[in-house]
Hints:
Oligomer: single chain
Largest sheet: none
Radius of gyration: 19 Å
Amino acid sequence: NTLSSAFLAMTLEQKNGKNETKRLFEESLRENPNNCLSCFCLGQWYEREGDDARAQEFYARAFRLNPNYFQAGYQWAVMSVRIKHPEIAKEALRGLEAILFKGGGNAQWWNDAGSLYCLLENYSAGLLMFEEALRISPDNLLYRKNAGNALFMLNDYSRAKKIYLDLVGQGVKDKKIFN
């Protein structure tokens, strides 16, 4: 069973090393070329190895095999941005939007999509995604900071300043929130 192979491979990586893991995922794909989990795990393997182009291929394959697999689509888009293929990242984002707009998303997914739009310098779309994340989870400081950053990039300084001052006024002590 290919799912068992995936879990076995993760366990084996801890015991026998990463090359055995890769071999098991590849074997799983030979047995079942439509196994999106094995594709996703190979994407992770290549990403950890620093081969972003191969990682992007496997994330794309996983997402195309299962267009509801948000994490695969997200990683596909991230890798596409990293290897400087913005048009491919936009294709991945369209797939992510299809999931989100049919009601399949949680606040983190909306925030992730917003972050991707901002990476692609589409701050208006990013802001819409952050606002939806905040509608779902209004007290999340990271989502608020991300919305403030998008507003800042859109030259809406007064609204951005209000968010930043609100975050500071809440006594945000985690400096990472402002990175």
